[in-house]
Structures are given as structure tokens and as C-alpha cells.
Amino acid sequence: MNPSSHAKILVIGNDPALAYLIGRYAEQGGYGIATAQVVPSAAETCALQPAAILFQSVEGLATSETLIREMADCDVPVLVCSSVTDQARARELGADHCLLHPLTYDSVLAAFIATNTQV
After folding, report:
1. Which of 57, 59, 85, 109 has the fewest C-beta atoms under 10 angstroms from its C-beta?
2. What's the mean pLDDT in 16-45?
3. 3-state SS assignment for residue 100
4. Looking at residues 6-13, what average pLDDT do you find?
5. What is the enclosing helix (H) or strand (E) of 80?
6. Which H or E run contains 21?
């Protein structure tokens, strides 16, 4: 994991370009980020106290169903980058909000606001 000094949003996935874009948008909006290429344990994730967890893909979310169930007590919103066609599946997998491609600054911040993610 690579936490910034204000780790607030935990970004999970292995797409460095997408992580960079999300990181830039988050920082411009006053949010800090932490990144992980693989899903950390629920205990490790809760210890970070993220304001939200953002999966870079629906596939990444699908492989993390156990983490999502284990994180129920932490009350951390789950966000996922997806296409319009994957929204229903993302919701079934536990996503609280979908960031639809192509991502824009306004859509990323709207997702954070929609899940009551505080700076």
C-alpha cells in the first residue's frame, strides 16, 4: 500500500493510469488517497480508517466479496469504476455507488458526495 499523508480514499486495483487519474481528482477535491494493487485484509483496511473504498473495476470488486462482507461493521462506503452495463452487477456485489466511464472530475466528486464521504 502507498498511503498519502491524508489517506482517506482507499483505491484498489492494478491500473496505474486509472489510480493516478483518481488520485489527481481526489486530491483536487481535498481528499487524500491510499492505493493497493491487491485487496488488503479487513483488519488492515479498517485500521486505515478510509472514508471510502474505491475499486478500479467490477472484476476487482467481484474478487473481494469476502472483504466487503467482513467490512460490514466498519461502515465504509464501497465505490467501483464501471460501465453503464455493469451497474446492476456492481450493486449486487455490494457497491454503494458506481463511477461510470469515462471518469470526470465532477463525476468522481459527485460519487464521494453521494456516499457521504467527508474530507
Report:
1. 85
2. 92
3. strand
4. 82
5. strand 78-82
6. helix 16-28
